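Batch manifest, entry 17 of 40.
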Amino acid sequence: MEAEKWGRRIRAFRKLKGFTQEQFAKEIGVSISFLGEVERGNKVPPDDFLEDVADMLCVSLEELQPLDDKENKSKGG
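Output type: structure tokens
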């Protein structure tokens, strides 16, 4: 469930910034298949990957973070 939310956010920001999946994977140094699995929610993205994604998209990790995760952290859960 968590992986799905991260994947949707990453895909949305990537498309908003005008990257194809192929271009974006190449820019951040991962395979297209890995990026696709993350975006589909099949893989939980590792922290270093999330940092690279946020840097490449010029957004903060907080902006990239799914809304449900933000709410849970602010409630202490």
